[in-house]
Amino acid sequence: MKNEMEIIFDAVSDNESFARVAVAAFVSHLNPTLEELADIKTAVSEAVTNSIIHGYENLYGYGRPGRCPASRKETNPGKVWVRCVLEGDLLHIRVTDQGRGMDNVEQAMEPLFTTKPELERSGMGFAFMEAFMDDLEVESTPGQGTVVSMTKKLGTGGWIEGEE
User: Fold this and answer.
1) Mind listing the pLDDT tens digit for each residue in 98-133?
2) Helix 125-132, helix 34-50: angle, nearest 10
3) Helix (H) or strand (E) holding 44
4) First to last CA, the chain
């Protein structure tokens, strides 16, 4: 059986937690392990955060508390799309923005690379997505946006012996 959902929201930091919880709720009927849920929520959080702060440069909410200049409190108009498709035990997630896009996807995916060091970004977003999901693909066109596609096979977590 195939099941799909899509959410569209403003590219503001407050919506990042909504996106990760919505995706977790979407897969909850499959009874994923806590580890699987944590992996999914982390990967979605990283992809959505990248769209917001790098795609649209909406930085409010991502700086150090109390140190966000007034210029960062204004947000650029923009939407983030999160689409999920469940096919059996496979979860496909696509996070899309129509923001700045990237000139060099390979460089952006290198661990510790960040274009926002002033925000104390670790540059580990793509590394986390890659580690927590079974497949990761990133497509980006400068001036047109970015699509992050991830796949996770559910039901691969450890089982307690004797549990029914």
Assistant:
1) 999 988 778 676 765 666 655 555 666 788 888 999
2) 150
3) helix 34-50
4) 24
State the architecture of 2-152 in CATH terms.
2-Layer Sandwich (3.30)
Cα distance between residue 100 and residue 102, in whole Å: 7
Domains of the chain, by residue range, sit at: 2-152
pLDDT of residue 146 exceeding 90, the answer is: yes
Closest by CA to 109, choosing from 137, 143, 134, is 137
User: Which residue in 128, 94, 132 sits closest to 112, CA to CA?
Assistant: 128
Residue 116 has a pLDDT of 62
Are 149 and 137 a contacting pair, CB within 8 Å? yes
Active site residues: 46, 50, 121
Distances (CA, A) of 161 to 45, 153, 157, 158, 164: 32, 21, 13, 9, 9
Strand spans (E) along 45-111: 79-87, 90-97
Angle separating helix axes 34-50 and 14-27, nearest 10 degrees: 140
pTM: 0.82
CA distances from 97 to 2, 134, 156 (A): 24, 22, 30
Mean pLDDT, residues 78-107 taken together: 92
The more confidently predicted of residues 157 and 90 is 90
